[in-house]
């Protein structure tokens, strides 16, 4: 178990990442807050020796995904409007806001893979390990997610939506 100062440093550094992964998985700010709290408690209680920043980040995301899976089957699961959460965010451009909504509208398997790849900068091998799926499946999820985003954004630009 790490000391309180180490825990506080890790919690401060990775809390936002844990929350973003949880929110992308669950699409609920309240559930993502609960998962973030559970993950940080697990971090506080762990006696695991971390080899560096990448090791702890990987461990936290793996634990977050496991906690999200538990939350999805919980009878207490809440749903929340994406618009309510988006109102708390600041986007650099209207296009970034539009892209956020479109990514959040993707099926979970594509949304999570795209988030980890593009926003958290994980490789396909790392995503494969984090999600516990084959590397080829990660490629498929990324490809299909990008195709869906491209189709949606192309339709919006052409005005057919």
Supply the key terms:
single chain, 161 residues, mainly alpha, 8 helices, 75% helix, globular
Protein architecture, described:
- This protein has eight helices and no strands.
- The chain is mostly helical and 161 residues long.
- Helix 1 crosses helix 6, helix 6 crosses helix 8 (135-158) and helix 7 (124-131) packs across helix 8.
- 75% of the residues lie in helices and 0% in strands.
- It has helices at 4-26, 29-45, 53-72, 82-86, 94-104, 108-119, 124-131, 135-158.
- The protein is globular.
Give the helix/strand layout.
Blueprint: H1 4-26, H2 29-45, H3 53-72, H4 82-86, H5 94-104, H6 108-119, H7 124-131, H8 135-158
Helix pairs in contact: 1-2, 1-3, 1-6, 2-3, 3-7, 6-8, 7-8
The chain-level mean pLDDT equals 84
Range of strand content: under 5%
**Helix residue percentage:** over 70%
Question: By helix and strand content, what is the structural category?
Answer: mainly alpha
What's the helix count?
8
- Report the order of strands and helices: HHHHHHHH
Uncertain residue segments? none
Alpha carbon gyration radius? 17 Å
Q: Say what oligomer this is.
A: single chain
Tally of strands: 0
Give the biggest sheet.
none
Judging from the principal axes of the Cα atoms, what is the shape? Answer: globular
From the N-terminal CA to the C-terminal CA, the straight-line distance is 54 Å
